[in-house]
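quick q for whoever's on today - can somebody do inverse folding on this one?? i tried earlier but teh output was garbage lol. tokens:
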């Protein structure tokens, strides 16, 4: 079952987000296996990331690589809000 993962980092900036994506892409780690969607949105003072994953296991594997990188950049993610995906619509 797909899951949604919503991150609401504390004090993260757009520059820090861009740096994290750059490092992941440069390392061949983005997009990771099992990630169905990745959406970053908001302003610097309320920046968020929403991801949809095939399952919790694949999200956990990626988190083991991601969290040290975010810590190095200075992004404090806090505890993500994780919930089952009920429906996805897009055009």
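ok took a stab at it. sequence:
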């Amino acid at each position: 079952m797909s899951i949604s993962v919503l991150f609401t980092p504390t004090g993260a900036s757009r520059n820090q987000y861009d740096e994290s994506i750059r490092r992941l892409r440069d390392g061949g780690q983005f997009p990771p296996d099992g990630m169905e969607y990745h959406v970053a949105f908001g302003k610097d003072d309320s920046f968020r990331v929403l991801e949809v994953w095939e399952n919790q296991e694949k999200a956990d594997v990626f988190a083991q690589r991601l969290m040290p990188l975010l810590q190095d950049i200075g992004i404090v993610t806090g505890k993500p809000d994780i919930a089952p995906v009920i429906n996805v619509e897009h055009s």
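fwiw The radius of gyration is 13 Å. also The longest strand covers residues 35-41. so keep that in mind when u check it
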